[in-house]
Every structure is written in structure tokens, then in C-alpha cells.
Amino acid sequence: MEASVVANHLIEFLQGFDGVTAYAAILGLLLVCGLGVPLPEDITLVGAGILAALGSISLPGALVAGFFGVLIGDAILFNLGRRYGRAVFEMPGARRIFTAERIAIAEKKVLNNSRFICFTARFLPGLRAPIYLTAGIMGVRPAIFYGLDGLAALVSVPIWVVGGWWFALHVDIDTGLEYAKKTQEYIIVVVFSLVFGYFLFRRYKKRKHLNQLPQR
User: Coil, strand, or helix at residue 73?
Assistant: First the structure.
């Protein structure tokens, strides 16, 4: 099924709820997304914003539900990895979600820089869940994981929720979905540009420090 069709069905599903049941639906969908099931997490957050625009829930409530929804799913995967190690890949259904290729990519990224990948994974659909699970398996410290994952959620959740709310309120829902698709691409480019810039800056500072050391 095409991503656009899935997105439309997801939005239609969420529009059938309001009040407490709407919050429960948002949290439930985000939890399922966080566990690696191929549902678009970003579209779910946009849907939360649309529900706020329709008056089914409040905008602050949509933000809180979105924030805790993504973090709970991330925390479950991270702690599964910490507790069970690689044995988690042998659990029923795990191989369908965490393919060998995705696991290999996730391990490489975590090995290269565990701190930055815990932040940037939030903006990598498809690799998000394998990276969080692998971070737990490979012993990333909980303080680092929760701190960086929480920081990334503070960036991404408002973008999707407020974006969905604004477009549904001032334009239309279909335009809001188009916004979500395009914004995902822009965010990935910006995040990786910042990461690349950071590594260049670190390399420059290291070289500058070495040049300042007294020569023997």
C-alpha cells in the first residue's frame, strides 16, 4: 500500500475519536510506531494536530500526548535491548520488523557515534526503531539516550503537531499531509547538515589544538 494511502487512512481513523479516546488512540498508535511497526509516526503526530484544529482535543494536549507517545515507544525498545541483548532479535515477529540489513546499518551508526545517532535517529524513518534497540544492546548510557532522544522529540513533535493544527485550521487537511511529506525531507537535510557541520568544527578544533602544542 502506498504511503499516501496509509496516511489518509490513518488520518481518517484518528478523526473518529475525540476527548479521552482521541488521546488514547494517539498514544496507542505512537507506541505501535515506536516498536517498529511500519506505520508513519510523523503522520500520526500531524493527525494529532488536525484533531486539535477540529476541536476534538486541545493543542497542548496533542503536544503532550505526542511527546510522551514517542518517548514511551523509544524507551521500551531501548530497555528491551539493554535487558535481553541480541536475543531480542529472536523474539516472535522481530525478524519481520528488524531485518538483518537494518540491524547492520543501526550497529554501524551507533558504533560511529552513539551520542549523535540517539538524537538524529528521531529524524530517520525506517531506522529509528532498530537504532534505539541497538543503542540498548550496545550499552549506550541511559542518561545519554534519554537526554538526546528527549531533546530530539522536543524539536520534532511540535513541528508535526503544530504544523498539522495550523494547516487544518487555516488551509485544509490535504495540504497538511503534503506539508508533512515535504517537511520530512527538509528536516533530514537540515539535521544532517548540522551534524556534518559539528564534525567539521570538532575536527578544526582538534587540529588547532594540536598546532598549538609545543614542538619538541
Answer: helix
Count of structural domains within the chain: 1
pLDDT single digits (tens) 149-207: 898 899 889 988 988 888 888 776 666 666 666 666 566 566 566 656 655 666 666 66
Cα angle for residues 194, 199, 205 (degrees, 5° grid):
125
Helix orientation angle between 19-34 and 41-54, rounded to the nearest 10 degrees: 170
Grid cell, residue 55, equals 476541536
What pLDDT, in 10s, does the model give residues 4-51? 566 677 777 887 888 899 999 999 988 888 777 767 788 888 889 888
- What predicted TM-score, i.e. pTM, was given to this entire model? 0.73
Please check whether residue 33 is in contact with residue 72, taking contact to mean a CB–CB distance below 8 angstroms. no
**CB count, 10 Å around CB of 8?**
15
* Number of other CB atoms surrounding residue 190 within 10 Å: 11
Cα separation, 149 vs 113, whole angstroms: 14
Domain extent for 162? 3-212
